[in-house]
């Protein structure tokens, strides 16, 4: 019955984690998956998350009853404030439909199912983009097309090509945009460039579909990192926003996230938003019934308490600050080694990743000869570097570039 099935290709990111775990080289480095590591290269459980877990443990009313398919209303509202801003007109005017999801990937999945039901047109994704975007879109029965993003030669955003592709796409197209800390390039549009993107999208009546997995990791500020989303909404766009707490609260395996669908102001905007929410909820019911509760309870304990909220911001700054430090150390070391090429982009790029510009062959050599695991497209998760392994990393890069 199933004997015609072939094994599927391994995931380009998680397959490397497996290989890394099996590798016995004491110098091995894992810069494949986008997960924060502390200065000793260990996973980091935010102290504020530990506190929240304790509070939950001591809560006599906590239980394991089913949640509604939408998630808990008050949790949805608090999460929406983090991304849209507490004074967001969309929230005040009650025209944002929010439901809880299984982290960012779950939000993207629900979004794609919703878009299939309501628009059923191709989704434009940046070239390059996060490896899983294509799969999520395809599995939802939608088509994807690419828009230009990266200029390999200048190691920068190719804004002209991006705008041209937006102009050439059919009117009313959906564009999947990384709200901040673009994965894999670590390169975001500047505010001026976002404004141009917004202008073209408005002219073409395109629909913005934001993926926001790294709020707080690009600039260290939740507000700055949500700037593009908030700007688009100010300009009157309707939008989908996928929000994840995996990275900024370090809750990777616990899967905390939300999807927000914002509708334009009108006399019946609240009713439209309510209907959207009911559709999101019925899609959720057929896929997974209801998203798990533990992680969002932790998130909400932190979001609802001003003291814990501030601790969270401080701890997020520790994470983004250490990544920035490692960017500088890496760039300086490669310059010191006179490694052929330019390396300033490693320091200039933002968020969790650097798009190093290393070729597939060079990356394969880093993996095979030096046990340094990074994705084949030359992306490294800077968070995997530490003061202890950065020398070994840079010397290895130097070797593969020269040989
Ligand atoms: C990554 O890009 O490495 C992370 O977002 C983890 C994942 O799920 O791929």
From TrEMBL:
Transmembrane segments: none annotated. Keywords: Aminotransferase, Pyridoxal phosphate, Transferase. GO terms for molecular function: L-aspartate:2-oxoglutarate aminotransferase activity; pyridoxal phosphate binding. GO terms for cellular component: cytosol. InterPro entries: Aminotransferase_I/II_large, Asp_trans, PyrdxlP-dep_Trfase, PyrdxlP-dep_Trfase_major, PyrdxlP-dep_Trfase_small. Residues 27-396 form the Aminotransferase class I/classII large domain. This is aspartate transaminase. GO terms for biological process: aspartate biosynthetic process. Belongs to the class-I pyridoxal-phosphate-dependent aminotransferase family. Its cofactor is pyridoxal 5'-phosphate. Homodimer. It is an enzyme of class 2 (transferase). The lineage of its organism: Eukaryota, Fungi, Fungi incertae sedis, Chytridiomycota, Chytridiomycota incertae sedis.
């Amino acid at each position: 019955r199933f004997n015609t099935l072939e094994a599927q290709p391994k995931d380009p990111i998680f397959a490397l984690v497996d290989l890394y775990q099996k590798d016995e080289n004491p110098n091995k480095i894992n810069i494949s998956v986008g997960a924060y590591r502390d200065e000793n290269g260990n996973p980091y459980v935010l102290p504020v998350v530990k506190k929240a877990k304790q509070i939950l443990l001591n809560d006599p009313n906590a239980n394991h009853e089913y949640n509604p398919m939408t998630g808990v209303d008050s949790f949805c509202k608090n999460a929406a404030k983090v991304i849209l801003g507490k004074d967001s007109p969309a929230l005040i005017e009650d025209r944002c439909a929010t439901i809880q999801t299984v982290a960012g990937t779950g939000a993207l999945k629900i979004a794609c199912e919703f878009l299939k039901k309501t628009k059923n047109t191709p989704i434009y994704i940046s070239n390059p983009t996060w490896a899983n975007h294509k799969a999520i879109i395809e599995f939802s029965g939608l088509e994807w097309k690419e828009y230009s993003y990266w200029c390999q030669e200048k190691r920068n955003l190719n804004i002209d090509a991006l705008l041209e592709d937006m102009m050439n796409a059919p009117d009313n197209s959906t564009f999947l945009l990384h709200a901040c800390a673009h994965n894999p390039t670590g390169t975001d549009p500047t505010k001026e460039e976002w404004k141009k993107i917004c202008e073209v999208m408005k002219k073409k009546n395109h629909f913005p579909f934001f993926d926001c997995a790294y709020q707080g990791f690009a600039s260290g500020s939740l507000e700055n990192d949500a700037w593009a989303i908030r700007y688009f909404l100010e300009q009157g766009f309707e939008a989908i926003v996928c929000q994840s707490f995996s990275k900024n609260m370090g809750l990777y395996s616990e899967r905390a996230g939300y999807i927000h669908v914002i509708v334009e102001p009108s006399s019946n905007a609240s009713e439209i938003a309510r209907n959207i929410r009911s559709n999101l909820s019925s899609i959720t019911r057929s896929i997974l019934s209801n998203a798990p509760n533990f992680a969002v309870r932790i998130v909400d304990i932190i979001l609802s308490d001003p003291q814990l909220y501030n601790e969270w911001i401080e701890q997020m700054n520790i994470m983004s600050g250490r990544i920035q430090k490692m960017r500088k150390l890496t760039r300086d070391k490669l310059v010191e080694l006179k490694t052929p090429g330019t390396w300033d982009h490693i320091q200039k790029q933002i968020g969790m990743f650097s798009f190093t510009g290393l070729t597939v062959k060079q990356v394969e050599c880093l993996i095979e000869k030096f046990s340094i695991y990074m994705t084949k497209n030359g992306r490294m998760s800077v968070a995997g570097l530490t003061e202890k392994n950065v020398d070994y990393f840079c010397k290895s890069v130097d070797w593969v570039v020269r040989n």
